[in-house]
Amino acid sequence: MPNEVTRGELTQPSYAAALDARDPLAACRDEFVGAESRLVYFDGNSLGRPLRATAGRLAAFVEEEWGGRLIRGWDERWYDLPLTLGDEVGRVCLGAAPGQTTLGDSTTVLLYKLVRAAVDAAESTSGSRRTEVVLDTDNFPTDRYVVEGIAEERGLTVRWIDVDRTAGVNLDQVREVVGEQTALVLLSHVAYRSGHLADARAVTAAVHDAGALVLWDLCHSVGAVPVELDAWGVDLAVGCTYKYLNGGPGSPAFAYVAQRHQDRLMQPIRGWMGHADPFLMGPAYQPAAGMRRFISGTPAVVGMLAMQDMLALIDRAGMAAVRDKSRRLTSYAVDLADARLADLGVTVASPRDPAQRGGHVTLQHERMREVTAELWRRDVIPDYRDPGGLRIGLSPLSTSFEEVRRGLEAVREVLLSPR
């Protein structure tokens, strides 16, 4: 809690209003559908609100591109859209130079592609095959399931980092497990449960010191936390676009492959759109050069439309300003939790240092499952994560400080109500 603010002042509507009045990004909120309502939305880290501009974009696409150009659209724009839009994601959010990012498939499928490609290409300094994949026990389920499945397919060993669920993987833990047999390390930049923000630059360097590759899951980072994949020397990354990039339900994920690795990695799902000459329809597969080789089937063009408006908004606001707003929102949520919920037995199950925290905060209490259900009935929408975690996802460009105050006050009201 800020030293100059009393606990009583912190919880007042006037204090939240003052924070909103001083917020340089406050006007961005008006650009989102539903932001004018009284509903409290604490789940922007699972599904972002749509932008008002997106309705016009979708309508124009149906009338003009799809309806007007029909199949000509593939030659005019759609065929290259996974790569051109991938470059825009890379420029605005990933710190990635052109030619290293593509859109398409789900996060799960892209994880499979890149994990398989990485472990199949991994060799030790002696030329022998590397046989271990490292990840942590609290990584997102998809990441764990994909790695376990590939380990079974390829006869690999999974090395687990056991982590504190209120924190996340740290540099010392990575250094303890990587070695001559490590093929790949797969970690989340922001932990899905606690919001812990990993030191990606330092961890990447440690993995490289062991001669291995690193793959970062950026699902809870992209659009909320500045990412510098090129500067950090990252090898591979994946992430979704329906959270802080507001691409809509099931919008395509993205994959990043550093330029230095592209021509030696062979992704396992060979499809016609990743062929060097897709319309040759030849008898044998020949991978395209560059990032196109990581595309498999026909891309989901409609699913790529909505995120374009959010990318433009983030670009206009600037990632530094977005991160600053995110830190202030989550810090306010932590301060309110201390002031209004600690006496009810609620604990903060996220890092307290905002520099070590992404865009969400998890509050722990044994009743949080039932509390979440009741909050939904009251139009307060967080999400629940076992064990006993109420997760507050604060999308910086669409969330106000007053919204945070009302939402945390609603949590207190529900906890005080009879069961």
TrEMBL record:
One of its GO terms (molecular function) is kynureninase activity. It is an enzyme of class 3 (hydrolase). Pyridoxal 5'-phosphate binds at residues 107-108, 140-143, 217, 220, 242, 272, 298. GO terms for cellular component: cytoplasm. Keywords: Hydrolase, Pyridine nucleotide biosynthesis, Pyridoxal phosphate. The modification N6-(pyridoxal phosphate)lysine is found at residue 243. PANTHER family: KYNURENINASE. This is Kynureninase. It comes from Nocardioides gansuensis. The gene is kynU.
